[in-house]
Every structure is written in structure tokens, then in C-alpha cells.
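Collaborator request, handled under Task 6.
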Amino acid sequence: MHGTATLLQADPPPARERRVVGPPAGDRRPGHASLSTLGMLRRGVVTEALIRVEALHKEFRLGLLRKRVTAVRGVSFAVERGDIFGFLGPNGAGKTTTIKMLTGLIAPTGGSATIFGEPVPSPRAMRRVGFLPENPYIYPYLTPTEFVELCARLSGLSSGAARARARAVLEQVGILYAADRPVGRLSKGMLQRTGLAAALVADPELLILDEPMSGLDPVGRKEVRDLIVEERRRGRTIFFSTHILNDVETLCDRVTILSRGQVVVSGRLDELLNREVRRTDIVLLHASAELESSLTQADHAVRRSGERLVVEASGDAAVKSVLETALAAGAHVLEASPRHETLEDLFVREAIKRDA
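C-alpha cells returned to the collaborator:
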């Protein structure tokens, strides 16, 4: 897949425990891990980091004065076999730079990283990786079929196998209907699907996807989410970066959040988020101005939304008080929704506010 990764560059060319997961059924290509080599066995359970990053650092020299700009500062994390791993951060946080170092497209200034235990850059490890860059570049005169077949051939598939596999993955990502159109005539979303098909064509063990939902409409995003879940079910490990926090919270086992090139949060999502009820949002209809004033004076956060009044109450006693007051004033209670900490809350607190 190293040749595929090169073709897909943005610029034109000049520890969680889980049960052992092997390669997809029927795949016996050299380099795939066997069940006996997946890591340290313990009561039939294995923990293995397919990606391990230690104190990774990247510094660029820019302009005529060769000014030093540090993009990544001592980043460390691990991606374990079978996980869906979310790599998050604001624009400019260092996500794409880190991914480029992992895939061998740029060299790190310091630190170390391994994929399948091989120090990066490793063409041998990249044979087992499917890679989708943030802005895939595809020769505009090729069709999706031709490009994905080319990627399959570069990954070692025979001509016949490459052709069959290309059609299968183009159908899987929902672009088969445009498989014979020149890429130069495709939309951004269609181009993104073509790049995703190229990442899947060699049946990789590990998928590295940089902004895989970029340019997709809501239907396309859902299809990619479903595809990620399905690929994990088939035994693949998925590492992806994104700005769409709802997708991460729905999909991911673990996350790492970067801010200004540094890790600010890392761990299992279910351990990072506080699932205790933080507040209850009570939505009222036909709430009078007098009721709104009364609730405000009682130190509840109150906001109007059209004909609805939304009251934030913290604690069971406050919820009971708001409901009793509202009903006594003749308001109609539409809903009372408990609110937990979300990934967006964590992201804003740890990444956005740190940058402010």
C-alpha cells in the first residue's frame, strides 16, 4: 500500500483488551498476523498496539529566513488492534502532520513511531495499511475504476483480482454508478469515495483515514459511518481524524485530542466522559412572562426559543421545583431531558479554550 499512499497525496506528484481478531476470511497474504503472533495471550484475550507513537516531534523551517515552526510537540498515543480510534483537534492542531509522519510522507524531527512493530517509514508495514489522505489527488484523466485498479496492482494483486476487487469496493463505497467517468468530472464527495475505495482495495488490516467524511453530504456521512462499523466487524482496526464530533462519540472506542501540536486528552471514551447527569433541560409551552421572571429569580438558566421556554435545572430538587412552579402557573411541560457530558463539551473545554 506504500505506492497507493504516494498516489493519493494531496499535491500532484513532481490498552484496551479484546478477543483476538485475525485477517479477513480467506486472506492469507504474507505479512498478515496469525493468531499465535497477535501479542501477549492472557486467558484467551490479547492486547496489541498496531500503532505506537512516542514523543513524536515535527519542526518545519519556513520562508527565506528559515523560521522555525513546531507543528507537533511530543505526541504519544497507541492504537490497539480491533479499535476504532478517533484523532481530534482544531484546525492546525497537528493531526495531518502526525498522520503524514506515520505513513512515511514526511520525516519526524524527533521521537519515534511504529506500525505493526515496524519503525516508520516502513514499506513492509504499509502493505498492510489502507490510507486515505485529507485531500486525495487522483489523475483527472483516470476513471475511478482505473485508479482503484492501479492501486490494487501496486499492492500486489494480479490483473484479474485487481479488476474484480476494484468493482467490489467501488460498489461498497457507493460510487460504482460513476466508476467509468473521468475523475476530473467528479464532485468532491465522489472524489472522496474514490479515495476511500483505493484505501480498501488491498483488504488491509489497518485503515488510516484523514478526514474521511470531508465533502460528503449527510447521506454520504452515514454511509461512511456504517462502512467503518462494518470494517471493524470484519476484523479491521480503524484510525481516523475528523472534526465531526458526533461521529466520533458514536463510533470510537478511544480518542486522542490535540491542541497546538500537543496531546491534551487521550484515553477510552467511556472513561473520559462523565456520564452522570449534569443538568436537566425542561421545555415549557404557554409559559407566561411572570413565570419566566420567577424562574430567573430562582437562579435557573432560562432561554426563549420561539413559543417555548427552556429551563436548565441542576439536581433532582431543582427539577421538582421547576416542574411544580410551571404546572401551578398553567404552563405545559413538553419534555424534561437529562443532559450528560458530551465529547463536544470535552473538546471545547480541553482543546478550544486552551487555544483561546
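The cover message to the collaborator said: "Residues 10-45 have pLDDT under 50 and may be disordered. The first helix runs from residue 2 to 7. Please let us know whether this matches your experimental observations."
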